[in-house]
Each structure stands twice: as C-alpha cells, then as structure tokens.
Specification:
The chain has 128 residues and is α+β, with helices and mostly antiparallel strands. The chain has three helices and seven strands; from the N terminus they run βααββββββα. It has a seven-stranded antiparallel β-sheet with strand order 1-7-6-5-4-3-2. β3 and β4 form a beta hairpin. The longest helix has 23 residues.
Length: 128
C-alpha cells in the first residue's frame, strides 16, 4: 500500500496548528463542513458530514497527532500522522499517510493540499 508524505509551513504557532487539527469548531471553519473531533486518545472523529471517520491513536499536545482514517469505500483503514515542529516564527507540519489505497493515492494526495492541510495553511495566511 502506498504512503503519502507532505510538508507544510504554517504562519501560526504549534498551539494554533494543533487546535486546527483537533478543535471541531475550527475544523468547521477551514473545511466549510460538519466535523466531530476530540483531542484525546481513543476519541472518534468524523469529517465532511461523516465521509471520513476514524479514531485518535496517539496525541502529544502541540507536537503530534496519529489517527486511524476510514472511508466507506476503502477495504481497510489507513494511518495518518501529523508531526508539528517550530521553525523560527512559523510551524512545520509533516504529514505521513500510510496504507493509502492504491486506486486513491493521487486524489488523496491532492486532497490533502486542496481540502485539509492546504486549507489550514490558507486559513492562517488570511488571519495574519
């Protein structure tokens, strides 16, 4: 199964980036859709009205978030890791998406930029 790796530089603090990943109200702002999310290990989540859903596997506040991601058209879940680091006055987010279904790798890779981490980055750029 393929792996997707991407890196984003955000004009925000690690705390702001972490909140954008785990706070349902903020997620609804950048995704323009319904979201349910928590910041605890074992918390279930759903995004885009339930199209994507899963569970938090590991949470290190302001540093790392590991999630199991599911989609009803996938045979098995995938694993997503967000690693958050400081770089000067900016924050780097490294994305590692493992076990991506072969037939979906291009659309998922594009989706991270268009609808998820790219959308978060744009939200911070518009605020500053």
């Amino acid at each position: 199964m393929p792996t997707i790796e991407q890196t984003y530089e955000m004009n925000a603090t690690p705390e702001e980036v972490f909140e954008a990943l785990v706070n349902a109200d903020i997620i609804q702002d950048w995704s323009n859709d319904e979201a349910k999310m928590g910041s605890e290990v074992g918390a279930a989540f759903s995004l885009w009205g339930g199209q994507m859903f899963g569970t938090n596997l590991e949470v290190v506040k302001n540093k790392k978030l590991v999630q199991e991601w599911c989609y009803d058209q996938w045979e098995k879940p995938s694993k997503v890791t967000f690693t958050i680091k400081t770089k000067g006055k900016k924050t780097i987010v490294d994305l590692l998406h493992e076990e991506v279904p072969e037939k979906s790798v291009n659309s998922i890779s594009d989706g991270w930029d268009a609808y998820y981490l790219g959308a978060i980055k744009k939200m911070f750029e518009e605020k500053k």
